[in-house]
Specification:
Bound molecules: S-adenosylmethionine
Strand content: 15-25%
Order of helices and strands: HEHEHEHEHEHEHHEEEHHHH
CATH superfamily of the largest domain: Vaccinia Virus protein VP39
Largest sheet: 7 strands, mixed
Number of helices: 12
Shape: elongated
Number of strands: 9
Low-confidence stretches: none
CATH class of the largest domain: Alpha Beta
Helix content: 25-40%
Distance between the termini: 53 Å
Length: about 260
């Protein structure tokens, strides 16, 4: 039962020295609001609470919530909500707290959905510092023209300055995951893109057949002729590929095609 629960909720708990190091990377000061996603048994939570931050934890598993309430329930700076983070009223929380930090050792099965949902609201925060699978962190933080660059890199870098902070091996967790992990710092870009609705679907479509040139990589999602015309209008070489375009260039390209 416990093993099934751990798999279902992506529960891999951090060892104490690693948790102390990661909590130390969060640049939150005493009294500042922190939103922690997936606190588990409180490995990061404890060290953050000891720093005097005002911490709200969102945890899906009621057994973890019981453990957390037992450990921290009497601390005034600890608040917990037992809910799936994907159903949590993030907008409401961010609007009622003064630019919180967002953190967490994210459950790997929903980490990209969590990051994608957070990005358009990142300007309401001081930033995100937390852990995902190493491969996902590398995709998120990839620069144009690198092999990991894709639609997730465009989505995140449209809103955030990105940096990988630490690589963490499986030996630092119980149970050990099958993959490496990494922490990253995502801070709001002052010049974040104002992305129209449909823009990120367009970017995802552009990477559908990533190895092909841009005029062929969309598959059937967009009119090929229009794409070729836009490539010409913008003066890109006919051989340009999706992986060569920065988020700004993608937006320019989108505007020429969709208007
Ligand atoms: N923070 C703890 C640590 O580092 O030891 C636990 C991290 S564990 C990788 C992920 C945590 O997220 C688990 O406690 C799990 O129950 C919780 N979780 C999984 N899916 C969730 C969701 N959709 N919303 C909120 N919490 C979730």
């Amino acid at each position: 039962m416990d093993r099934a629960r751990r798999r279902k909720f992506g529960q891999n708990f951090l060892d104490v020295p690693t948790a102390i190091a990661i909590a130390g990377d969060l640049p939150a000061n005493e009294g500042e609001a922190v939103l922690e996603i997936g606190p588990g048994h409180g490995a990061l939570t404890e060290h953050l609470l000891n720093r005097g931050v005002d911490l709200t934890a969102v945890e899906i598993d009621e057994q973890c919530v019981e453990v957390l309430n037992g450990k921290f329930g009497d601390r005034k700076n600890f608040h917990i909500t037992n809910i799936d983070f994907l159903k949590f009223d993030l907008e409401g929380f961010l609007n009622s707290h003064e630019k919180p930090w967002v953190t967490g050792n994210l459950p790997y099965n929903v980490s990209t959905a969590i990051i994608a949902g957070l990005m358009p609201r990142l300007y309401l925060t001081k930033g995100f510092m937390g852990m995902v699978q190493l491969e996902v962190a590398e995709r998120i933080c990839a620069a144009p023209c690198s092999s990991n660059y894709g639609s997730l890199s465009v989505l995140v870098s449209a809103f955030a300055d990105t940096q990988i902070l630490r690589k963490i091996g499986p030996e630092h967790f119980t149970p050990k995951p099958n993959v490496d992990s990494a922490t990253m710092l995502l801070t709001p870009r002052a010049d974040a893109l104002v992305a129209p609705e449909g823009f990120f679907d367009f970017v995802r479509a552009a990477f559908t057949q990533k190895r092909k040139t841009l005029s062929n990589s969309f598959g059937k999602a967009y009119d090929k002729k229009k794409i070729q015309e836009a490539i010409e209008v913008l003066g890109y070489p006919a051989t340009v590929r999706a992986e060569e375009l920065s988020p700004e260039q993608f937006l320019e390209f989108y505007k020429v095609i969709v208007g």
